[in-house]
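for the writeup, i need someone to sanity check this before i put it in the appendix. the sequnce is what the collaborator sent (i think, or maybe the updated version? ugh). structure was predicted straight from it, no edits. if anything looks off just tell me and ill rerun, i have time this weekend
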Amino acid sequence: MKGDINPIIFAILAVGIVVVVIFLLSGNIGRFTTRMSIEECKQKMQTSCSSFRTTGNPVVFRDIPQTCAEDLEVSSLFKACIEGKAQQCENLCESIEIR
């Protein structure tokens, strides 16, 4: 009787692992979340630009995904900005405002 429980436990664990993997890959939880829309990216960039202009610190851009910069077609400015080049951050903000 005791031996019959082990396969059931393994089956439940396997199903649980599959469910967690599905959630991770579907973008509902974790770092595998789906991409932001272009409008969400633009709004996040504008918020970061406002913070940058107040503080002068390019660190405010580091929480923006690279995919946002690619979607907004400003990836080279964005890369230079997060590397700490303040003038590139200003150029980035001007590019975002024009769009």
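The mean pLDDT is 84. Residues 2-32 form one domain.
thx in advance!!
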